[in-house]
Design goal:
By secondary structure, the chain is α+β, with helices and mostly antiparallel strands. Helix content is 34%, strand content 32%. The protein is elongated and about 165 Å long.
Length: 452
């Protein structure tokens, strides 16, 4: 009825305006010149008035069936504190142990990395390993043509044998000269000369023996063996190429990946806690996570930390060791590191999303025994894994609101649901019901029914 009366008033206003602009004798009026401006102003005023009225009527929630005007009034009154209950979810204040982790970005580093190079010069005749193969220390990785080195060994052995025969003959002559000198048959000078010749042959023999050992070593170096156990990379030199001991390009690179290490950095403010845990009797657990921190790639222990702080970044480097039995860690791989720094025992903790911040500090909403919200100031401590330690303001067993806090005031009635999803769904429905409807959103049938 109010909408119909407003339409009738607008029509009557237009009629009176048109009558005022046309004189009764039919002669042109001075207001005729202002007719376009007056019509525009009247239409604009009518539209503004109609829009304001529709906005006021549509901002109130529709009454439920059978409720009438009394139901609409109750819905409007229920928005204030103590009126309609606000749907929320709660969580208890828990007392227990809370592990504190430090997070960092780390780089996987091979425990040992060896660039395998030839130690003698020659032609590469054989490469028996497969690229990417796991090898053990002592396995043959490459073979250099051994024939020149075998010939050098044979020559050294021949020279040794020749000098051994000369030494044997000199020693026999020395024994004979000693007998003759005892009989005073030869001069002392002859005996001394023979003794010097024996010592000369002994020195030559030792030189020959060193040459033989060197030739054997060079011959052994023609078989290039793995110095450590690990995984070989791609072959850098093909069979048939001439290699030397001075080549800058290695034959292959071996990386030790079992075990493997991860190097990461932590701020210097956390150094004290880590150093205290590292000096204790228990190992410090470290986990390597994937890029999204959703999956644990490997678990290990902290081995050591650097002996100085980087002055440019204010951080210190740490190294952790991992068994890497399944080889999920790869050298130079970037991983997220989670280090268990300490465990807080017997502390009160709540979900982090229950904490609100205001001008007077941090606070939470408590669900009291009467089912109403109570604003409570709190003092917070360490936060970990979406939970935060509360040092003052709460007691064990109290319930704090974790979902729906943005619509709460001190004393608001609460409707507690079991899960956060239900609280969010209820908040969405209540927000849509309380939001103003756009102009013209009502159907013609609804308008006609209300006007009647």
């Amino acid at each position: 009825m109010r909408r119909f009366a407003l339409r009738l008033a607008i029509i009557q206003t237009f009629g009176r305006l048109m009558t005022a602009m046309t004189p009764s004798n039919g002669t042109p009026s001075k207001l005729r010149k202002l007719r376009p401006w007056l019509i525009t102003a009247a239409v604009f005023a009518a539209v503004v008035g109609l829009s304001m009225w529709l906005h006021q009527t549509s901002s109130a929630p529709e009454p439920q069936a059978g409720g009438g005007r009394g139901a609409r009034g109750a819905a409007m009154a229920g928005r204030g504190p103590g009126g309609t209950a606000i749907t929320v979810s709660v969580a208890p204040v828990v007392k227990g142990d809370l592990p504190v982790h430090y997070h960092a970005l780390g780089t996987v580093t091979a425990y040992n990395t060896v660039n395998v190079r030839a130690r003698v010069s020659g032609q590469l005749v054989k490469v028996p390993f497969q690229e990417g193969q796991q090898v053990k220390a002592g396995d043959v990785l490459a073979v250099i043509d051994p024939r020149p080195f075998q010939a050098a060994l044979d020559q050294a052995v021949g020279t040794l044998q020749q000098n051994q025969a000369q030494l044997k003959n000199a020693r026999i002559d020395l024994a004979r000269y000693k007998g003759l000198y005892a009989e005073d048959s030869i001069a002392k000078q002859t005996l001394d000369t023979q003794e010097a010749l024996v010592r000369q042959y002994e020195g030559t023999l030792r030189t020959n023996q060193g040459q033989v050992d060197d030739a054997k070593l060079n011959l052994e170096f023609t078989q290039v063996r793995a110095p450590i156990s690990g995984r070989v990379g791609l072959r850098q030199v093909d069979v048939g190429n001439l290699v030397t001991s001075g080549d800058t390009t290695p034959l292959v690179v071996i990386t030790q990946v079992r075990p493997i290490s991860v190097v990461f950095s932590l701020p210097q403010q956390q150094l004290g806690t880590v150093a205290r845990q590292l000096s204790g009797s228990q190992p410090v657990p470290v986990e390597a996570l994937d890029r999204n921190q959703n999956q644990t790639l490997a678990s290990g222990v902290l081995k050591t930390l650097d002996n100085q702080i980087d002055t440019t970044t204010g951080t210190v480097k740490l190294k952790a060791a991992f068994e890497n039995a399944d080889q999920r860690l790869f050298p130079n791989q970037f991983v997220n590191v989670r280090l268990l720094a300490e465990t807080l025992h017997g502390v009160l903790s709540i979900p982090a999303n229950a904490v609100q911040r205001g001008n007077d500090g941090t606070y939470v909403y408590i669900a009291d025994a009467d089912g109403k919200a109570k604003r409570q100031l709190v003092t917070l401590g360490t936060s970990e894994n979406e939970r935060v330690v509360v040092t003052e303001g709460l007691k064990e067993g109290q319930r704090v609101v974790v979902e729906g806090t943005d619509r709460l005031r001190d004393g608001t009635r609460l409707h507690i649901v079991a899960s956060d999803e239900q609280a969010r769904a209820a908040a969405t429905e209540e927000g849509e019901a309380a939001s103003p409807k756009p102009f013209g959103s009502g159907s013609p049938a609804q308008d006609d029914g209300k006007s009647e």
